[in-house]
User: Which sequence fits this backbone?
């Protein structure tokens, strides 16, 4: 190899090293720092009092937080489709089609359990004993359908300007501004004050990720109402990353 050729290869190697370093830096910045952090509070927020009033309305429309938490346990069974290959890997499921059953105490005084069937994969037992992906799946789908009651812990609550006549409420924790360890939510209410759509940051995946979830229909048991189906996309109206139909909702005895 000539001296000119060796110099050219060294220059290429240096260039590739620089590009790799820049790429690694950008990936680190995107996934591990606040440089590209999404912000759902990027439009004017209303007052906390108006936000709390909206929270009270949607909790009541779904049957009431006290009535939900009064149950010793709740069992929900879904048939789902995880369309995204990346999402299947993240959740640790083998196939696109997933049958999932969760039983949990709304007050979390007893362990949550699951039964999952996906392709040749069958898993059953306490969620806490499962691999990280299945733990994330269980927590995510429970939160998705329990959302009208799960948001009771949010301590930052504001109304937002309606969109197409639909009231909206902004919810987060600590402060409204985006934070690396805290998610932001925007909930849309339908004409009966039920939550029929929401957007949420997903800091656990990456600082810039925003999920858009839409509900269809309602299942009611003893005055409690949960979505009959849900689709989750990464943008409004986008193709679903995963979607779920609530096939059964069983309520345990009152405490």
Assistant:
């Amino acid at each position: 190899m000539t001296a000119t050729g060796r110099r050219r290869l060294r220059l290429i190697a240096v260039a590739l090293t620089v590009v790799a370093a820049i790429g690694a830096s950008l990936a680190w910045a995107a996934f591990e720092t606040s440089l590209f952090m999404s912000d759902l509070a990027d439009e004017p927020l209303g007052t906390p009092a108006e936000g709390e009033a909206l929270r009270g309305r949607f909790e009541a429309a779904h049957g009431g937080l006290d009535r939900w938490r009064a149950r010793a346990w709740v069992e929900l069974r879904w048939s789902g489709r995880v369309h995204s290959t990346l999402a299947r890997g993240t959740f640790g499921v083998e196939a696109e089609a997933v049958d999932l059953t969760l039983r949990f105490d709304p007050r979390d005084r007893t362990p949550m359990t699951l039964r999952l069937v996906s392709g040749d994969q069958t898993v059953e037992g306490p969620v806490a004993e499962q691999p990280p992906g299945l733990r994330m799946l269980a927590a995510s789908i429970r939160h998705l359908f329990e959302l009208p009651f799960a948001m009771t812990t949010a301590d930052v609550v504001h109304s937002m300007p309606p969109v197409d006549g639909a009231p909206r409420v902004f919810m987060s924790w600590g402060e409204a501004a985006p934070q690396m360890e805290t998610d932001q939510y925007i909930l849309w209410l339908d004409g009966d004050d039920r939550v029929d759509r929401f957007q949420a940051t997903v800091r656990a995946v990456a600082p810039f990720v925003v999920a858009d979830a839409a509900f269809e229909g309602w299942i009611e048991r003893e005055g409690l109402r949960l979505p009959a189906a849900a689709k989750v996309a990464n943008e409004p109206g986008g193709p679903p990353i995963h979607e779920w139909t609530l096939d059964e909702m069983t309520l345990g005895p009152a405490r």
Q: What stands out?
A: The chain is about 30% helix and 35% strand.
